Amino acid sequence: MTINDVRGVIKGRVLLPGDDGFEQAATAWNLTVRQPVAAVVEAADADDVAALVRYARRAGMTVTAQPSGHGASGDVEGLILLRTGLLNEVEVRERERVVRVGAGATWGQVLAAAGPLGLTGLAGSA
Q: Rounded distance, CA 87 to CA 125, Å?
């Protein structure tokens, strides 16, 4: 089993070193952090995430997730970088006062969906 085999189990985009767009996809938000990952996977849906985790387990590899490149540590050599930016759905259930947020949604998307209903949430920061 090679890293190239991941393309057979993912509907979303899979980028390997040398592919057009790989360097950009592997770049963290903080440009001073280098991310020498083995692959970048842009999940199309939750099934892609599950398929990637199963693949990685069989291949003895580790997956790390970064929706937008925030939270990069640089300690990712040889890992598969999972980008969840396409999983950006935001569902507001007004009567229940609950918001369901996809793994790739930005806080701005959450606030835009919740605000008109008089709802908000506390943003984290460091």
A: 22
